[in-house]
Amino acid sequence: MSGVLFRSFWLSEWGVPSFIFLAWLLALGLGWGAKDKPYSIRFGFICASGVALVLLATVYVHRYFGIALLLALVYLGAKTKFFERQWGAASTGRTGNQQQ
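Below the sequence we write its predicted structure tokens.
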């Protein structure tokens, strides 16, 4: 709906950066979680910045470079066990700040 109503804005020079910023805010909120989810603001910030970086690379460089960057970030997250530690903390009900 907003793409139809604000078509001239989305096609202007401010359209793409605004879309990337809105995607960053959405990913930040989804990564941070809600009251019942123990995700941290750090997890949300890292995931949101990865999403924004991939969108920037896709829009301004090339779509294959964006896909390669996305795959590299997912591989890096899996290799360092970043997601496993975060989701492991969520399944046990602990946050990353608490220690056993």
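The longest helix spans residues 41-60.
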